[in-house]
Amino acid sequence: MTKPPLTLYLAAPRGFCAGVDRAIKIVEMAIQKWGAPVYVRHEIVHNKFVVDSLKDQGAVFVEELSECPDDRPVIFSAHGVPKSVPEAAQARHMVYVDATCPLVSKVHIEAERHSEQGLQIIMIGHAGHPETIGTMGQLPEGEVLLVETVADVAEVEVRDPEKLAFVTQTTLSIDDTKDIVAALQARFPAIQGPHKEDICYATTNRQEAVKAMAPKIDALLVVGAPNSSNSRRLVEVGARNGCKYAQLVQRATDIDWRALEGIKSIGITAGASAPEVLVDEVIAALCDRFDVTVAEVETAQENVEFKVPRVLREPA
């Protein structure tokens, strides 16, 4: 039986960013240095395949430091943690390694710098996301106020409208964030922003690649986890830019084939915490059902690399 033709547009860049790659290496190197088990507070990155792979190597994932024994190393996830977490680890004389993405750490430093200047911080982010919790937890309660939408800006109550600064979660929609920043600046003209954009290079690049693909495709598949903020934003960006159908899939088994009936072209990208092996799996599944022609849509090249902490680079 003849397979229907399908043009597959592959986004570039896609998949792992430097912060995710570094965080995974930190867990693997910690297991090599100290042996199993090594504890990890929260999923090191938001991807089940990655987490399961690290579990197989000897990582134990927990949600709170209280679940970790004193005598085993603990790693803090790439999303960052409130200041109270490393303070508690130090009080218990634990060995710990901070795998917070350096670009998230940059936002933490910005927030502290603004606070030292007497400014109250408004954070643009998603309530309950570990990155938001970690950033807000760098300062005492009440010093960082959260807004998620333009509507929230109208309701937020600040201490002094003349003494404000804003920071953002690194994995937000660029377009949504611009609208919220504009609303903040309209309501609080004196508000100070970051010296450089807080939304990270990888989030920006992956969203721009989807925007470039969107006019060419009938459907978009984003490989990523449902709890991955940057992956979910890619689905939204695709839909907003004209994709008739956009779906988030963790694995090829999640593809809704009925929704893809009759399509002539499809775009594939992957969130910053999704490994390329899962993209290959989705492509193979499409090749089983379609006569596939692959075209790459490259909008940027990435050569960023972050070093792992010194403690893991020293001889065991």
Automatic annotation (TrEMBL):
Residues forming the catalytic site: E131
Binding site for [4Fe-4S] cluster: C17, C101, C200
EC assignment: 1.17.7.4
InterPro entries recorded: LytB/IspH
Cofactor note: Binds 1 [4Fe-4S] cluster per subunit.
Positions bound to dimethylallyl diphosphate: H46, H79, H129, S228, S229, N230, S273
Gene3D superfamilies referenced in this protein's UniProt entry, alphabetically: 3.40.50.11270, 4-hydroxy-3-methylbut-2-enyl diphosphate reductase, catalytic domain
Pathway(s) it belongs to: Isoprenoid biosynthesis; dimethylallyl diphosphate biosynthesis; dimethylallyl diphosphate from (2E)-4-hydroxy-3-methylbutenyl diphosphate: step 1/1; Isoprenoid biosynthesis; isopentenyl diphosphate biosynthesis via DXP pathway; isopentenyl diphosphate from 1-deoxy-D-xylulose 5-phosphate: step 6/6
HAMAP family with a match to the protein in the record: IspH
Descriptive protein name: 4-hydroxy-3-methylbut-2-enyl diphosphate reductase
Source species: Thalassovita mangrovi
Gene: ispH
